[in-house]
Amino acid sequence: MEIYLPIAEVSVNVFTILFIGLLSGVLAGIFGVGGGFLSTPLLIFMGIAPQYAVTSSATQAIASSFSGYSNYKRRDLVDTKLGNLLIFGGFIGAFAGIKFFVALQKTGNINLIINIFYIIFLGVIGSIMFIESLSSILKKKKDSNTLNLNKFLTKLPWLVDFPKSKITLSIYPPLLISVFSGILVAIMGIGGGFILVPAMIYIFGMPTTTAIGTSLYQIIFITALTTILQAVKGHNLDLMLSVLLIIGSSVGAQIGVRFASKLSAEKLRIFLAVLLLTLLLTLLYRTMSAPEVLYEVIFQ
Amino acid sequence: MSLQRYFFILLFILLPLKLYAGAIVVDLDKRNIAIESDFKGDKIAVYGIQRLNGKIVIEFVGPTENISVLQKKRHFGMWVNENESKFDGMPFLYHILYSSGQRGDEVLEYYYKLFQKKPLFEADELYRKQALYLSEYMYENELYNITPGVEYLSDFFFKATITIPAEVREGDYRINFYLLEESRIADKISIPLNISKIGLAALLEKFAEKYSLIYGITSVLIAITLGWFASWLFNKR
Q: What ipTM score was computed for the predicted complex, to two decimals?
């Protein structure tokens, strides 16, 4: 069944979009992430212009993060104080990211830049995850390689206590990381959980569950801001596309949660790593291979 | 009485009176085109008569656009868009229909007169190549076209079919009729044609364009509501 997306100005198959939403929802359910990192490139492969794919994935991330956040909030696993600091940094990043995005749109290279960001992101995260999960399967040992950077962070200026997470750290590292994740949200349409959660666990030394809950809390605000900014400044938000993705991902998340309980953590991670690396190779091929025509027409 | 004469008389009865003043009298079978979710293009039937000697050229022209053509160049293994050439104020759609009996040079001369752009012989090679690619691109997408689409049923009575391609955008278009006599415009009339989207898609687009802030906030609220609903449903089960 074809449906015309009024803002993206393209006809798409409803079930394909629902399936993409479902797939990213399954991942969201398994790994507690937004799933935008998968839906954005898949939508671009389908022929939806990158600016609409990015914005609609960001809107989808609001729904999945809010859904996850309500569960963590109920269990009192959200550090609101640290979350607010991350929101502040994320807002700066998102504003900068949108400005960068709109400027890139004018140069005609937005597609290439999004691809490069994804290639770096998928390459780094995919390889680390693949090596780490493979070695833990082979050695059958627990992954307790926490980088104990928390002591170093207490030596930096402007120390603040975060009682909920039982940590004390300078405000600069969380601010820096959240600015970076805000930029990623604006350019890649991902929630930023992939950056924030590992940073909070390995660098800040937060408990895993509080880190996930706090990350989800922050992502709601950053993706909401990105959605509004993209709607106003870029006119890139296709609500019809977002709603289809949200419906798919809401169902997918439930399947994902059930699926996660049946697989070991290492197997889940290696499965995700293979998926990320496959996406990386496809994107790499598309970016490097010679185009059919050497010119591109852009209607301003 | 021949069939053509019947048609001629019928046309006079059907045509609106205000169009009788000049040397060209035309009527279209529709003045509005609606783009729905399953729009695959459309056709408009045109009938007309002329009161002077000469041949009719029909120009179907759409809203103006600023178009850029970029060249792809390889840097570090990646294809980067650069060397932008701007083609501002170009019509998004430009169709010319002339009659098969017309002299080709007359039509072409007229076509260039109407479609004055930066003369290509003054431009550099890259600009010429990009202009050529743009014209191929527009032609392949049926946005620009020049065809012998005007058919004369008698010396003064003509008909034509205007094709609306599936890629058409909404906006205000014009169908201009020129009566050419030895490359001179003996008479001209212009009829507006509105092409617009209808239904839910049109509503959403207008909302997004006119009230972008409210549209953005509404989208966020919808996303939060759907997220909350999914969480509620999941916990209920």
A: 0.83
Work out how many CB contacts closer than 8 A connect A with B.
Answer: 167
Q: Which residues contact A141 (CB under 8 A, 6 or more apart)?
A: none
Distance CA B12, CA B15 (A): 5
CA A294 to chain centre: 32
Alpha carbon distance B28, B86 (integer Å): 35
Is the CB of B201 inside 8 Å of chain A's CB atoms? yes
Residue B219's alpha-carbon distances to A16, A227, B37, B96, in angstroms, are: 21, 8, 21, 43
Comparing CB atoms, the residue among B79, B205, B230 nearest residue A250 is: B230
pLDDT-wise least confident of A127-131, A190-194, B130-134: A190-194
Q: Whats the size of chain A, residue-wise?
A: 300
A27 three-state secondary structure: helix
Contact between A117 and A184 under an 8 Å Cβ cutoff? The reply is yes
d(CA A222, CA A92): 10
Residue type, A64: S
Dist CA B48 CA B45 (whole Å)? 10
Which residues in chain B are closer than 8 Å to A71, comparing Cβ atoms? 231, 235
Residue B86: name the closest of B119, B121, B134, B125 by CA. B134
Residue-wise pLDDT tens digits, A101-118: 888 888 888 888 888 888
Six-digit token pair at B229? Answer: 């609903």
Which A residues, 64 through 103, put their C-beta within 8 Å of a C-beta on chain B? 64-68, 70-71
Mean pLDDT lowest for which of A66-75, A212-221, B99-108, B126-135?
B99-108
Which residue has tokens 């620009």? B144
Asked if A287's CB is within 8 angstroms of B78's CB, the reply is: yes
- Side-chain half-sphere of B4: how many Cα atoms within 13 Å? 11
- Interchain pair B212, A231: CB under 8 A: yes
CB A185 within 8 A of CB A93: yes
For residue B38, the chain A residues in CB contact (below 8 A) are 2, 4
Q: Is the pLDDT of residue B6 over 50?
A: no
Measured between its terminal Cα atoms, the distance across chain A in Å is: 31
DSSP three-state, residue A86 = helix
Question: Does any CB of chain B come closer than 8 Å to the CB of residue A109?
Answer: yes
Beta strand pairing status for B32-35 and B55-61? unpaired
- A221 → chain B, closest CA residue: B220
Q: Which of A169, A194, A215 is nearest to A72 (CA)?
A: A215
